[in-house]
Amino acid sequence: MEKQSLEAILKENAYPGRGIVIGASEDGKSAVCAYFIMGRSTNSRNRVFVEDGEGIRTEAFDPSLLTDPSLIIYAPVRVLGNKTIVTNGDQTDTIYEGMDKQQTFEQSLRSRKYEPDAPNLTPRISGVMHVEGGTYNYAMSILKSDNQRDGSCNRFTFAYENPYKGEGRFIHTYMGDGNPLPSFEGEPEWVGIEGDIDTFTNKVWNALNEQNKVSLFVRFIDIETGKYETRIMNKNVK
């Protein structure tokens, strides 16, 4: 696999959908995660990220325009002790509750599958970061239909130990725009992570398609102390 520019991937894809990036900062001091959402419909675009405890949740920007909250209102990020969970749906809660009962990341997701939004059958993408006492590892998961056919769920988990500084992995829901939307294929993409939190946030935000981007969350977690910094970007601003 060849390491790619995250900016280039985003600029070349008008609609990756929802995406998770996890890795390590360029200086090797921070665990890094980013999560973005995009939208094609008024309902999908009518959202913002807001802080919720140590995590975030999605919220309708204009409640009067909200038509179906089932797949767009959820908590993308939650923190369980030294674990940070990030997903593209309400499986955040499933993972949190499972791991709180000593289940593994993979076991926690056994009760879930891709989203019930035929014909797209959007994959559920998830990640968990474990930062403790100067050590850091992470895992990513995708639950997807079998070649966009309903009824069969394919489950893939990827685990990364002692990640190299200045790089990470990127997984997103769609390969690009289309009807139906084509599901992500293959391993999470190997990408570079450049700069401090503000530089990285701005690079990702500016690379997302201007028409389709909605919100972006970025967090840098100090690997030694567990303290973190967060940035949130919303296209909809009051």
Fill in the keyword field for this structure.
about 240 residues, alpha+beta, Glutamine Phosphoribosylpyrophosphate, subunit 1, domain 1, 5-stranded antiparallel beta sheet, 13 strands
Characterization of this structure:
- The protein has 5 helices and 13 strands.
- The longest helix is centred in the C-terminal third of the chain and has 11 residues, at 197-207.
- A 6-stranded antiparallel β-sheet has the order 11-10-1-2-12-13, covered by helices on one side.
- It has one domain: Glutamine Phosphoribosylpyrophosphate, subunit 1, domain 1.
- With 238 residues, it is α+β, with helices and mostly antiparallel strands.
- The mean pLDDT is 96.
- The radius of gyration is 16 Å and the shape is globular.
Q: Any chance you could write out the topology, listing elements then pairs?
A:
Layout: H1 6-12, E1 19-24, E2 30-38, H2 42-45, E3 47-52, E4 55-60, E5 77-80, E6 83-87, H3 91-100, H4 105-108, E7 124-132, E8 135-146, E9 149-161, E10 167-172, E11 189-192, H5 197-207, E12 213-222, E13 228-234
Antiparallel strand pairs: 1-2, 1-10, 2-12, 3-4, 5-6, 6-7, 7-8, 8-9, 10-11, 12-13
Helix pairs in contact: 1-5
Indicate the CATH class.
Alpha Beta
**Class by helix and strand content?**
alpha+beta
CATH H-level homologous superfamily name: Inosine monophosphate cyclohydrolase-like
Instruction: Please report the number of helical segments.
Output: 5
Task: Return the average pLDDT rounded to an integer.
Answer: 96
Architecture (CATH level 2) name:
4-Layer Sandwich
Q: Determine the strand fraction and express it as a percent band.
A: 35-45%
**How many structural domains in the coordinates?**
1
- CATH fold descriptor: Glutamine Phosphoribosylpyrophosphate, subunit 1, domain 1
Order of helices and strands: HEEHEEEEHHEEEEEHEE
Q: Order of strands in the sheet with the most strands? A: 11-10-1-2-12-13
* Amino- and carboxy-terminal Cα gap: 43 Å
As a whole number of angstroms, the C-alpha radius of gyration is 16 Å
Q: What's the shape?
A: globular
